[in-house]
Design a protein that fits this description.
Elements lengths: L3 H9 L12 H18 L9 H11 L3
Length: 65
């Protein structure tokens, strides 16, 4: 479901989950909370253009739809 880059980024945020096994609902909720926060804080530059982190966060969150 997640790419290697996305997993590496989420682990850097302290999400030390086993991404090779099915995740629990609370795991998905935790991912969504943390990644959404990162998107809000670091996801856009001063001109509101998405940053590299913002694009990565959006890609992760898009998988929840």
């Amino acid at each position: 479901m997640f790419t290697k880059e996305e997993i590496k980024y989420m682990k850097s945020l302290g999400l030390n989950l086993d991404f090779h096994k099915p995740l629990l609902n609370e795991d998905y909720e935790r991912i969504e909370d943390i990644v959404s926060h990162q998107l809000q804080v670091y996801g856009f530059d001063k001109n509101y253009n998405p940053t590299t982190i913002g694009i990565l966060c959006e890609n992760i969150l898009d998988k929840f739809d």
